[in-house]
Amino acid sequence: MEREEHARAIFETNLTGALNTLFPAIEQMRQQKPDKNGHRGRICVMSSVASFVSYPGTPSYSASKAAIDRFVVASAPSLEKQGISLTSVCCGFVKTPMVRANRFPMPGLVSTEEAVRRILRGTLRGQRRIMFPFWLGLGARLTDLLPPRLAERYYCRQPSAQPGGMPDY
Questions:
Q1: One of this protein's Pfam families, by short name (predicted)?
Q2: What is the 3-state secondary structure (H, E, C) of 113-158?
Q3: How confident is the model at residue 163 (pLDDT cuts 50, 70, 90)?
Q4: pTM confidence score
Q5: Residue 12: helix, strand or coil by DSSP?
């Protein structure tokens, strides 16, 4: 199990930090004049493909990303009526300095440039949720439909679920 201080720090960053950015941005956009199409602005919030799973290797990461994804997707319809577009970005592994510490395989690893292209394209289309790579997100969502003990059999065999498999920040 994760240490309490580690779990709290992850939630503070991934959920509280995101909300501390999101609410002021929404308030600022509400005060802006809409353009000729009624749009006041677009906001992207970073979640993760991990939000779709109850992964034993990263319980606080998965749970905090699930919370922000659900909040963004659920809030989007009411904000859309005010001319504000909200998008949750559920990406897999992106080649950034943060993932360099990972000591396990990272299927579907994409470059930062490719991630930016996908995020911009989806945001400009007004997608509620951008998920990539699609196959990884779909697999995660389908696996999460399994009974927990059955899913655990798969997850607990993964290298990142082994002792020392995940960085302990």
A1: adh_short
A2: HHHHHHHHHHHHCCCCEEEECHHHHHHHHHHCCCCHHHHHHHHCCC
A3: low
A4: 0.88
A5: helix
